[in-house]
Specification:
Blueprint (H helix, E strand, L loop, with lengths): L3 H12 L1 H54 L2 H11 L2 H32 L4 H10 L1 H8 L2 H6 L3 H22 L6 H26 L9 H10 L1 H24 L2 H38 L1 H28 L1 H9 L7 H26 L4 H52 L1 H5 L5
Length: about 425
């Protein structure tokens, strides 16, 4: 039987918005992790190495454009909403949503230019066009708003619903390698459904009205979030540039194998994502109130993740030769050696989020964090092109690991140099 002190503590946890949000996001993350365990083995086998490689190249380019539309609002917008009064939220929502609409139009122009002037074959271009519907969905997704309001329940329910619809349709309609175009449409449909439902929830559940903001306010939002946009853009380049390089120097088969192998370490990052999403607005507020408390939370988070994620990476590495053929099929077995390089990359990437986002950005070092990323992106591009051209997919994997390690060193050094400022004054 629980004593009174323990009972009161549990009741306090139940009422904590931080705990509730964490639970909801982990429900979502478990769902997002379990679903690929069913769909990915099916899709990689049905589409084949060549078809899955074609899809991966197009998706990689679309995800670059996705960064443009999101523009770092998942961080800057979340932080603004978390620190704003209820009267200011509607105005911030309209300004950011209008900004995303303009960015979507710009991305459409970019796709049109790529379609006309790129050297990709017709099949690759068709995949690119069909996956653009993903961008339309992202434009109207309200993840940043729900995060700032700390209403993660809605993110979970919306995404579970949209993904379930997409998954059911994939198993019904995708049967062979000729269905790659249809798969692109169904993949995009998850984002489109999520965007539509998000708009309905924002209006009906929260009563937040949208009005088209003037260009001056759009300019202010874009200017205010530029440093975080650059960070997001460069982060995407860091994680996706390898596939881009292989798209030029390797075959669709090589791209398909590398892309499939990336999915395993990505699962680890997906498990961490809810922690990052829940803690960022919370840690940001703690830093604004008490710097020492914010530092303590970030330190504890770093140690916990190092131990837990490190152990998981070690376990996966031991059983990689068994897991890869089971998950993806025998055609992908030759990619097992890539796992041994990509797992450390995933671990370091997670820890870099704690150093960069949960520490530097949370306490106001947005521009400094962006500058560090700027240096790292040069390292990433040079290493990927050099090693990718010579050593193919293994070279790209090694380049990714080296670049991520370089970023960790730079972030750690900056935090060490600025340790007194980070722990001390409230205004940076």
């Amino acid at each position: 039987m629980l004593n009174k002190k323990t009972y009161l503590y549990i009741e306090k946890l139940k009422k904590s918005s931080l705990v509730r949000n964490g639970v909801w996001l982990y429900v979502l993350q478990i769902f997002q992790t379990v679903i690929p365990l069913f769909t990915l083995p099916y899709v990689t086998r049905v589409l084949g190495v060549d078809g899955y490689g074609m899809f991966s190249i197009a998706l990689n380019l679309i995800l670059y454009i996705q960064v443009l539309v999101e523009y770092g609002f998942n961080l800057s917008g979340t932080r603004k909403i978390a620190l704003s009064s209820s009267e200011e939220i509607s105005e911030i929502y309209s300004d950011i949503q209008t900004s995303k609409i303009y960015l979507c139009i710009l991305s459409l122009i970019t796709i049109f230019i790529l379609f006309i002037y790129s050297t990709y074959d017709h099949s690759q271009k068709m995949c690119l066009i069909l996956l653009f519907f993903l961008i339309l969905g992202v434009t109207f997704q309200q993840t940043w708003l729900f995060q700032g309001l700390q209403k993660m329940k809605f993110i979970t329910l919306i995404n579970v619903f949209s993904r379930l619809v997409s998954v059911v349709l994939i198993f019904i309609f995708i049967h062979d390698s000729q269905d790659v175009y249809l798969y692109c449409i169904l993949y995009s449909s998850t984002y489109v459904i999520s965007g539509i439902v998000s708009l309905i929830v924002v209006n009906r559940e929260f009563g937040i009205a949208y009005h088209f903001s003037p260009l001056i306010k759009v300019w202010y939002e874009l200017k205010d979030g530029f440093s975080l946009f650059m960070t997001s853009a460069m982060s995407k380049i860091v994680t996706g540039f390898g596939i881009t390089v292989l798209g030029f120097f390797a075959t669709n088969e090589d791209v398909g194998i590398y892309s499939a192998m990336q999915k395993i370490p990505y699962v680890l990052i997906m498990f961490f994502t809810p922690i990052s999403q829940v803690l960022f607005p919370y840690i940001s507020k703690q830093f604004s109130i008490d710097r020492s408390r914010g530092v303590k939370i970030a330190k504890n988070l770093f140690v916990i993740l190092l131990v837990i994620m490190g152990a998981i990476c070690f376990f996966i590495a031991i059983f990689a030769k068994i897991l890869v053929p089971i998950i993806f099929g025998d055609d992908y077995a030759q990619g097992v050696t890539l796992i041994y390089v990509l797992l450390p990359w995933a671990l370091i990437s997670i820890l870099n989020n704690v150093l960069g986002i949960q520490t530097l950005v949370a306490c106001g070092f947005n521009k400094e964090y962006s500058k560090i990323f700027s240096v790292n992106i040069i390292v990433t591009i040079v290493l990927n092109v050099f090693f990718g051209k010579i050593y193919g997919s293994m070279g790209v994997a090694m380049a990714t690991l080296i670049a991520e390690s370089t970023l960790m060193i730079c972030l750690a050094l900056f935090i060490w140099v600025k340790r007194e400022t980070i722990k001390g004054e409230n205004n940076v």
